[in-house]
Structure formats: C-alpha cells, structure tokens
Amino acid sequence: MAEPSKVIHVRNVGHEISENDLLQLFQPFGVITKLVMLRAKNQALLQMQDVPSAINALQFYANVQPTIRGRNVYVQFSSHQELTTMDQNAQGRGDEPNRILLVTIHHMLYPITVEVLHQVFSPHGFVEKIVTFQKSAGFQALIQYQGCQSAVSARTSLQGRNIYDGCCQLDIQFSNLDELQVHYNNDRSRDFTNPNLPTEQKGRSTQHPGYGDVGVGFSQMANAAAIAAAFGGGLPPGISGTNDRCTVLVSNLNPDRIDEDKLFNLFSLYGNIVRIKLLRNKPDHALVQMGDGFQAELAVHFLKGAMLFGKRLEVNFSKHPNITQGADTHEYVNSNLNRFNRNAAKNYRYCCSPTKMVHLSTLPQDVTEEEIVNHLAEHGTIVNTKLFEMNGKKQALVMFETEEQATEALVSKHATSLGGSIIRISFSQLQTIRENSL
C-alpha cells in the first residue's frame, strides 16, 4: 500500500464514466480540489482537500466495492502527494475571493438542512447551489452564489455568527472550486437553478423491490454514498459494512410488556422493518427482519445490552435468513412508519445506542411543554425539557433520569397521537439541554 496521500488514483475508469460520476463517489468524504481524467489509460487522479479525507474514502471503499454505472472501479493512494496542475494558494482555499464559500458549522446542537442554509445565505445574493457533508472537522457546506460579490458580502457579515442563539456558529472561507456538482435535490444538496433533479439515486427509492427479499445485502444497496455521507466518510467504530444477514434474534425480553409494535418502534431507528415475529414457544424471544444486512448490523451493534422493561436485551444475528410470513408474523414492509424510506442519509447519521435524551418531532404547532411531559411522564423521571421551532415546525428535547426510562418512552410513545398529530421520537446524542432560547 502506498503511503497515504490526498491524491487518489482510480483505475478501470471506462469511457462511459464522467467527471461528475467520480466526484459523486468521493464528495461524501470532503472537498475535492482537483480532478484529472487520464482517458488514454482508463484512469483518473483526484485530489482531496486533506489526507484524512482521502484516508476515510479509501478505508470506506476497502469494505464497499465502488461501482459506477455497473462497472467496478479500483482506488488506491497515488504516489503523488500533490497534483501540480493546480494553481494552489497556501491552503487550497482561504482569503482569495470566490463565488463559492466553504462553511463549517461548530457546536451544532440542531440539525442544519439545505433550507436553513438557504434562509441564512440568500439575503446576500442569488444562491445557485448548496452541498452539505459531514467531516471530522464537523458539519460543512459549500454554497455557490451567482456572483463573487455576493459571496464576499455574505462572508463579511456572517463570519463567526450563530445561526441559532448560542449554537451553530458559522466559520466561512472561500473555496477554490469553480463549480459545484449537484446530483440530487434533497435536504443535503440542492441546485436552485435546476428544480427537476431527482431526490435520491434510482434504486434507493421507497419502491425498492429488494425490501423483504432474501439476501438483499449491503453490497447491493444502490447508494453506499448515502451511508458514507451519513458517517462522515467512514463507518461507525465496530461496524464492518460487510454483513449480509438481515434477520436479528432478540432475547431476554419482558414478555408481559413487549409486543411487535414496541419492537418496531425501537428497531426502526436503525433501518426499515420487513416483519417481526414473537416466538410462542420462547415468549422472551423475537425475530426482527430488517431491510438489509447493513441495517441489521447497526441494530445489533447499537442495541446489544440495552435495558428495556427491567431486562438487558440480547441482540444477535439469527441463523434464519428471513422470517416466513404467517399468521403469527406482523408485517411492516409497507408501513409508512418505516423511517428510512425518506432521508436515508439523515436517519443513518442519527443512529446511536439508547441515550437519556429523546427528540420529538411532528408535534402539533400549539403544543405546550406541559402536554409533552404529561404524555411521557409515566415512563420515568423527566429531568429537563425544551420546546423549540425548526423550519417553522415544533420539536422538543426531553431528558430522562436513565437510558432505560428514555427507551421505554420511545418504544411506548413513538407514532402515538398527541393533540391530533402522530409524533416521532428518536434518541438524541446531545448530553445536555442548553437554556438559550431559540
């Protein structure tokens, strides 16, 4: 293996593969500063902004075979440390004005979407394109204006400012890219000059026929890049990304308190649920079939040893490749409560082990903190709550005394009705609730 370099050497680049295809493969891992196509050799050289971005990309594609238009491509570090064809300033970006801004968001307590960034940056000029991604430095975005003067004005007035009171601080530099490549219009990227772009890559849509099919493994997931983007260009520690077993065996359940819907509410945090079966001959056991092997691996990894209804859960891969549909199975394959049919990358990004803090969304607009507390209080001691608004919609954070109480509240009250709205509950990775008002 060559010594790590920010330059990546790509082989088997067929004539049908475009520059945009290659950019799409590597954009989740960070900013790409240069791309050279070596058409005569069916190869390409691509320079990332820094060495860690390139290492993340190569580590990820060591586990996941990168394919473009059905063709396997092969990636390795280049023997070049730098592509000299590039007119570089000191950092590859910095103070030289450009119509594209590189924005890093520090202390991000609330999710930042393309819409939020557009609201913040559009007063300074026409925003053509926005691309967002997760990096080791934090959440970053590239924002392309129509003209350079708009970018200069935005940087001058927004540098160091907070999007929300006390958090989400903007750190803005000029990018040295000439043009952003946007392939999808969704909550992570947007081309405001081309509203007709698809929201997701074909094959990752809600109608994916693979859900529920045996052996629809991680390697067949059409959009490995969504997972890469979600996890900052790598995989969470302990996740191999190579598991193809879709069915999970859960044991040491509390048979008096558990049912299929409660299991659905917990396991659907980590992927789409096909079907669930409680084992009649072993009432503290259940089988859960996930959408694919990667989602099953996330569930096993994050839920192993979790406490629920006074029991410590055992979560392992089942020897059964799938659950046979029958009178004793509950079907969820077509459930509109499956979370990963929309915004898959965002849902992957929020995967974590149970925490003391839950996040509530799709709340009624006139909801009060008192109503939220009354709805959840039977499940444990509520230490703190915060009601806030995001993109004009009410959301809340509720902190319990223990992870087990928060887990019980989530499995019991996700997808229940509060004030006429079906509420959505997830675990939050925030440690504390800041008191600053939004």
Automatic annotation (TrEMBL):
<feature type="compositionally biased region" description="Polar residues">
    <location>
        <begin position="192"/>
        <end position="207"/>
    </location>
</feature>
<feature type="domain" description="RRM">
    <location>
        <begin position="6"/>
        <end position="80"/>
    </location>
</feature>
<dbReference type="InterPro" id="IPR021790">
    <property type="entry name" value="PTBP1-like_RRM2"/>
</dbReference>
<dbReference type="GO" id="GO:0003723">
    <property type="term" value="F:RNA binding"/>
</dbReference>
<protein>
    <submittedName>
        <fullName>Polypyrimidine tract-binding protein homolog 3-like isoform X2</fullName>
    </submittedName>
</protein>
<dbReference type="InterPro" id="IPR012677">
    <property type="entry name" value="Nucleotide-bd_a/b_plait_sf"/>
</dbReference>
<dbReference type="Pfam" id="PF11835">
    <property type="entry name" value="RRM_8"/>
</dbReference>
<dbReference type="InterPro" id="IPR034795">
    <property type="entry name" value="PTBPH3_RRM1"/>
</dbReference>
<keyword id="KW-0694">RNA-binding</keyword>
<feature type="domain" description="RRM">
    <location>
        <begin position="356"/>
        <end position="430"/>
    </location>
</feature>
<feature type="domain" description="RRM">
    <location>
        <begin position="246"/>
        <end position="320"/>
    </location>
</feature>
<keyword id="KW-0677">Repeat</keyword>
<feature type="region of interest" description="Disordered">
    <location>
        <begin position="187"/>
        <end position="207"/>
    </location>
</feature>
<dbReference type="Pfam" id="PF13893">
    <property type="entry name" value="RRM_5"/>
</dbReference>
<dbReference type="Pfam" id="PF00076">
    <property type="entry name" value="RRM_1"/>
</dbReference>
<dbReference type="InterPro" id="IPR000504">
    <property type="entry name" value="RRM_dom"/>
</dbReference>
<dbReference type="InterPro" id="IPR035979">
    <property type="entry name" value="RBD_domain_sf"/>
</dbReference>
<dbReference type="InterPro" id="IPR034797">
    <property type="entry name" value="PTBPH3_RRM3"/>
</dbReference>
